[in-house]
Amino acid sequence: MTILFFSRLFLPHIGGVEKHVFELSKELIKKNYKIIVVTEKNQLNNSSAKITGEIDGIKIYRIDAGGENVFKKFRVWWWLWQNRHLIENADIVHCHDVFFWYIPFRFLYPNKPIYTTFHGYETKFPPSKKAIFIRKVSERLSWGNICVGDYIKKWYGTRPNLVTYGGVDIGKIRNLNIEIRNKIKILFIGRLEKDTGVLNYLKVLELMRKRKIKFDLEACGDGSLKKMVEDYGKVNGFVDDLNTYIEKADIVFASSYLSILEAMAAKKLVFCAYDNKLKEDYLKMSPFAKWIVIEDSSTKLSDKVWYFIQHKKEKDKVVHDAYEWVKKQTWKKVADRYINLWGLQIL
Fold first, then answer.
1. d(Cα 25, Cα 21) in Å, to the nearest integer?
2. In sequence order, what are the beta bridge partners of 60?
3. CB-based contacts of 150: which residues, under 8 Å, 6+ apart?
4. CA–CA separation, 127 vs 270, rounded Å?
5. H helix or E strand, kind and range, residue 272
6. Whether the model pTM is above 0.90
7. What's the mean pLDDT when you consider all of the chain?
């Protein structure tokens, strides 16, 4: 059986959606599904210049869609029309956010099973009426959908068939619950942009400096606030092997579900900041909210960091409970949920 995934970006580009599609595809291949991913050619990275290729058994087709302008969608549609055999030969088409790619073909192939995963939210708050409308159209024209996070129901009015938060490959994560040393090792994971809470985290670090708390900061991510972050520590950019950096950290500042799960799997205490109601719901409506520290105030977050540094027993209890939950959140479990959505038999 052939599954055709549409994803705007894919490996070697690094990101949450890219990893979700990759790990999901690997699990489906183990169950003897054939996986094809249609994605954009990364305009800024020559390493993805090949139009077709294969990664770990996943067949990849890349659309040279050009820059962001009004003609881009027509270039995507034209490419898909020229390569419509991919749709015709697929048993199931599944869009990861980019349902608009498929809109013309939804009517050309009305009986082709089509599903959508809604992965995240726009960086602007509150969500625009246009963004909400596009999601409602995508939902209405899909046979079913998966939402990554319960908050999507509240903020976009989506009625999901299933909700997921992603998974972890527990066997590949070293979970070293090491003693906090004199100088605290802090890792930030995510884009270095205002919407990820970076400014709140930097305020926390400034308060730690005023308290004479010594720390080493590393950031795995990139963005327009890179220079500001470099005033406090080292910026590594987006990295392929995030676990190498997580395992060396004492505590983790994280802003996305997958990075939070991976930090929990490595037995690290996770601190999360929010600066609007949507991000608050993104964090607090998650099933693991009780095992991460969530605050909207840099002062409160700094106080919590200081508290857990001084109270190892309480810290270890939170970390242990988080690990016991997250170790069950496997990518196999995620794949089984997709198969359930598609109405297929779980092997």
1. 6
2. 37, 53
3. 163, 281, 285, 286
4. 26
5. strand 269-273
6. yes
7. 93
